Amino acid sequence: MQLSKAAELCYEITNSYLQIHQESQIISSTQEAIRLTRKYLLSEIFVRWSPLNGEISFSYNGGKDCQVLLLLYLSCLWEYFFIKAQNSQFDFEFQSFPMQRLPTVFIDQEETFPTLENFVLETSERYCLSLYESQRQSETAINMADAFREFIKIYPETAAIVIGIRHTDPYGETLQPIQRTDSNWPDFMRLQPLLHWDLTNIWSFLLYSNEPICGLYGEGFTSVGGVNNSLPNPYLKKDLSDIPLLFEWEIAHAFGKNAAGEHDPIVNTSPISVVDKERFSEYQDDYYPGWYLIDDTIERAGRIKN
Ligand code: FMN
What we know:
Layout: H1 3-18, H2 25-45, E1 56-59, H3 64-86, E2 102-106, H4 114-126, E3 129-133, H5 144-154, E4 160-162, E5 178-180, E6 189-191, H6 199-209, H7 248-252, H8 274-280
Parallel strand pairs: 1-2, 1-4, 2-3, 4-6
Antiparallel strand pairs: 5-6
Helix pairs in contact: 1-3, 2-3, 2-6, 3-6
Bound molecules: flavin mononucleotide.
């Protein structure tokens, strides 16, 4: 897929979600969340930094939050290009999308699940990302600020980086949608237009999108870090209690399924790698999928503190 096609697809997914008329508090709050993120991107960010000339990079690690933000970012990128092209003196059909790949940075801090690594590579192709991957040190976890220092050295044109962090993430409570990095970090602007999203918003939009999502979420993970500090979320253990699925409608009516008249309950998860299958063999099928967990306060219960 070309970047212009990927961006147009994301635009269609987002528009389709915004047009859902369902009596669902989750869907209407997610529609509100999308509108606010779009406002930040189109009216506050893209007017200060051009998304088409390398000033903005996207921080991507294959996780659900940054994938949601990527879909919205690409959707707005398409809209930004479309409006510019419409206002130009030349007919729209003679205008070509001025970017082939989206500048993206993946700080791979510690030993990562191969399933996630594969997902990042596959989605880099799907969404036409030009992926910079930091050098990983095998024993000690790499310092994130240093990894970004290295990145900025190689891409000095970077003025701002988009981050899919939310207020409920650790240290996320007091963050602002647009802010400079702290003094002990390399100097650039942090663009954080997803802060107001909660878990239900994330799953509702992502499951509806019908885009491939990282297979680890299908195995009960709700927050993915390194292989040595991430497990399925203990609150999703099947023998604890029955947990209701709140996103049945989104899954059954997901984008693109309706056209074929299908209403299937399958979620588009990426394949689990052979190594991870082996790793999970003891407890595979013991957990509900990650999208059964909707309480933000226990989202990281599967993360082991080092
Ligand atoms: N943390 C800071 O304390 N100060 C910063 O200035 C800062 N800048 C960041 C810039 C980027 C592009 C990214 C991706 C992260 C930055 N962080 C900064 C760290 C994040 O706020 C957050 O702690 C980190 O992304 C958490 O990662 P995790 O969700 O994988 O645990």
